[in-house]
């Protein structure tokens, strides 16, 4: 492939990328601006500008990274403007921390991992998935039993089945 050749996304490719990344990008933006509606606006704005400007990509494998970086930068731009207008007080240290690559990567990994876990939980039987979600939220087995109106032993059984199925699924994903 010619190194200088760029690829312009087709409408279908663009829609697929939007549908695949939208939720994760909104969560990334929300980590910065702490406002879900505003986060959605930021993500939509990034996609609209990318489409209107027909952003060319030299490498199809870098498209996801482009959108994550664009959303991060747009979120930081919002914070800077909000900071400059003194609507909400952010210390310069807070802004510097939010700008670091390690903060961004950590948040992106957390969101992607959470998304993978949620998709895996959706494949479990309903009661097993519910017990695991509550467990992830730091509920004790007793609290889960009370919430689900079942015995503690049944909670343990649901979690045992869930762990077994999740381990099997993680093998398919190459996670050990």
Automatic annotation (TrEMBL):
Would the keyword Transport be found if you checked this record's keyword annotation? Answer: no
Q: Where is the RNA polymerase sigma-70 region domain?
A: 18-82
Q: Name one GO biological process term.
A: DNA-templated transcription initiation
One Pfam family name from the record?
A: Sigma70_r4_2
Q: From the Swiss-Prot or TrEMBL record, what is one GO molecular function term?
A: DNA binding
* Domain RNA polymerase sigma factor 70 region 4 type stretches: 116-166
Where does the source fall among the domains of life? Bacteria
Q: What keywords does the record list, in alphabetical order? A: Sigma factor, Transcription, Transcription regulation
Q: Which InterPro entries match?
A: EF_Hand_1_Ca_BS (IPR018247), RNA_pol_sigma-70-like (IPR039425), RNA_pol_sigma-70_dom (IPR014284), RNA_pol_sigma70_bacteroid (IPR014327), RNA_pol_sigma70_r2 (IPR007627), RNA_pol_sigma70_r4_t2 (IPR013249), RNA_pol_sigma_r2 (IPR013325), RNA_pol_sigma_r3/r4-like (IPR013324)
Q: What family classification does the UniProt entry report for this protein?
A: Belongs to the sigma-70 factor family. ECF subfamily.
- Official protein name in the record: RNA polymerase sigma-70 factor
**What's the source species for this entry?**
Flavivirga rizhaonensis
């Amino acid at each position: 492939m010619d190194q200088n050749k760029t690829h312009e996304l087709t409408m279908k490719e663009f829609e697929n990328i939007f549908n695949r990344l939208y939720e994760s990008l909104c969560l990334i933006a929300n980590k910065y601006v702490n406002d879900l509606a505003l986060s959605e606006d930021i993500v939509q704005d990034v996609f609209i500008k990318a489409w209107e400007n027909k952003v060319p990509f030299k490498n199809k494998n870098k498209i996801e990274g482009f959108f994550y970086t664009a959303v991060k930068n747009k979120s930081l731009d919002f914070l800077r403007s909000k900071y400059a207008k003194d609507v909400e007080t952010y210390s310069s240290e807070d802004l510097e921390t939010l700008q670091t690559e390690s903060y961004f990567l950590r948040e992106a990994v957390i969101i992607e991992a959470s998304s993978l876990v949620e998709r895996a939980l959706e494949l479990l039987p309903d009661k097993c998935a519910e017990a695991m979600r509550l467990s992830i939220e730091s509920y004790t087995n007793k609290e889960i039993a009370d919430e689900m109106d079942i015995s503690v032993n049944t909670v343990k059984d649901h979690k045992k089945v869930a762990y077994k199925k999740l381990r099997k699924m993680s093998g398919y994903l190459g996670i050990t």
